[in-house]
Task: structure prediction
Amino acid sequence: MATGAVDVGALAAGVAAGDRVALARAITLVESQHGDDRDSAEELLARLLPQSGGAVRVGISGVPGVGKSTLIENLGARLVSTGQRVAVLAVDPSSTVTGGSILGDKARMNRLAMEPSAFIRPSPAASTLGGVALRTRESLLLVEAAGFDVVLVETVGVGQSETAVADLVDTFVLLALPGAGDELQGIKRGIVELADVLAVNKAEGEGKKRAEVARAELSSALGYQRPKAGGWQVPTLLVSGLTGEGLDELWAKVMEHRRAMSTSGQLEARRARQRLRWLGDEVSDRLRRSLAQHGAAQREYVRVSAEVAAGRLSVGAAARDVIETFLGAEP
Ligand SMILES: Nc1nc2c(ncn2[C@@H]2O[C@H](COP(=O)(O)OP(=O)(O)OP(=O)(O)O)[C@@H](O)[C@H]2O)c(=O)[nH]1
Ligand SMILES: [Mg+2]
Result:
């Protein structure tokens, strides 16, 4: 659905002034799938780009139920109490199916949601994870233009989404659960490699001993990894998002990572790499959408699909036919 005629100039001014209502509207605009809105969104982003880039961007990931939202609520409240403005964005691939599972999350971040210097945005319901990540990148620029000092991006750990989120933050924090396990508790190997900081959550009271076991195991798993860019050693910590234990240390590590990256020039290099990957994703996404809207190409797709399914046409030849129709024929 189109959001109606948008006064991009006024909206940009509102966002730049830190107006939360304007910011929420701006994010709705970039998330819109409507063609007219896309044009306005791009104009808005072009205007605000010079004011973006200033926030500390941190991804918080981990398997469902590891305690991401609880930790973000507690950490966010601490940061707010030190005078920082904190925004929370969410990337939830399950929302592409259910149309949004973040309601529970927002309830979990009740206290933070009520802070005037905090801003919480549920994840967009886009048709693909790629689409979600693209729009989250844009939302991130908007909250930066609105003057937020810290952006925390929560992602549900199911594999692909962490890669997408690691690609849009400066520091990627992976949360794990207490106790040991062969499969590192369901965390995929490739995901552990993405982590800049690892923390075993729910490490309070009775859970502390088991948390230490998990920490030792993760720590030794990290030992086999090649060092990160700039020689950064991934720390493993014990935290409790519930009680707040270890959260100050966690934040200190995030800041330490950031300082190390800044000093070595890695921060700028990382962001440059991310922007280039973003460009590639954006081009692919647009091509895919144009293809889907191209009548002749879609008819050709249907035709060759039947041939491919029946084994009469090779996949390569079929793909070439679709692309040639797309490039050669009127829509
Ligand atoms: N003991 C203990 N329980 C916690 C802690 N953090 C979260 N929990 C509990 O774990 C459950 C899941 O917490 P959430 O914060 O919703 O976890 P999440 O990772 O955001 O979950 P999804 O968004 O569904 O992936 C809730 O019942 C929390 O109360 C903690 O530090 N210690
Ligand atoms: Mg959550």
Summary: Residues 96-102 have pLDDT under 50 and may be disordered. The first strand starts at residue 56 and ends at 62. Residues 62, 64-70, 105, 108, 156, 201-202, 204, 240-242 surround guanosine-5'-triphosphate (ligand 1) (CB under 6 Å).
